[in-house]
Amino acid sequence: MHELSVCIALMQQVERIAQEHDAGRVDRIVLQLGPLSGVEAPLLEHAWPLACTGTLAEAAELLIEAAPVKVECTQCGAVSEVVPNRLLCASCGDFRTRLLSGDEMLLASLELSRMKTQAVQQQCV
Amino acid sequence: MCDTCGCNITPGNEHLVRGDGRLAKTDEGREAVTVLQSLLSENDHQAAHNRTHFDSHGVFAVNLMSSPGAGKTALLEATIESLGDAYRIAVIEGDLETENDAERIRACGVEAIQIATGSACHLDAHMVHTALHQLDLDPVDILFIENVGNLVCPASFDLGQHRNITLLSVPEGDDKPAKYPVMFRAADLVLLTKTDLLPYLSDFRPERAERCLRELASESPLLSLSSASGEAMEDWLTWLRTEVAAQRERIRQGATLRPAIQPDGMRLHSAAPATHAHAHGVVNATGGEG
Question: What is the ipTM of this complex?
Fold first, then answer.
């Protein structure tokens, strides 16, 4: 499905940010995916090795945080945690709710090593 | 979604960036960088460019999505027949292979650009941009972008359209919105198609389809029609006429519109100072629409 497209876009983003920070290596990538983003974490994890091979992020840990689906009722104001295909207010049952979280598809943060290649080698010795 | 002002911080992820959050701590020699960008920010940037392009040419752009065979092309043929004299219409067709759909549209006397995606299961903003190079938008009032038939992936990619329409055909079953919530939540309008088959498929209950849609917290209209028999086309045509008029009014006011379902960050952003005039400044003008 489209998880590989998403992975390739992610990889481009990660490389650009790593260059901006003059990083020699990307150690950790933290994503946040909600069930309503349309992207599945296991599929993204499977596609990831195809996208990261030969890049600064080849050895990076990919951490995917799930975001709960939460809605706020525009009628009674209650906040409820709900399932993705039933976004009704758990308190009053109204369908007029506002999604608070659950559709995130974000690159949340990166952990970078500033060390240049030489420094990495020194550490290995 | 904004990548600059921090509005991507939602109740679901704010713990990640708080000072005491797990990610604030890193091993020695490492640097933690908070990004909070949409994974599709490249696509979103191109989509914003496409939208600006549509607006500057006075075009109303619609993204048509559905499963394969729900009647997207048949809907366009019937619409062109009804409105082809009143509006200048153009179509971008997305399919994995063949020019078949573009040829059907051209047979109606309307310009059509076929995008053959190969094995890609959706259109993205870059593909649409490439197709736009083959299309003169000046003489176009309505551009229909017929997405690849797929109820999953197309929902995730902004193409630069003003409105999303999702088709649900009677043979597919009335619980599709419950099965594919991401797609149906993205719809500004849901069209129940092939209603001429309702007498033969009695287990399809239109009211159940509507209930499944409302359970996604969607207030979008659900209109029924049959392109084949021509029944109940008028509500759809009225919706389209109203939307074209609204688009002309927005252009007159220098405003634009994105499809209704946007992440919360966008809604928050409408109250923040415009920091990215190209993509977001214009959206602020209609911040209340989202």
Answer: 0.77
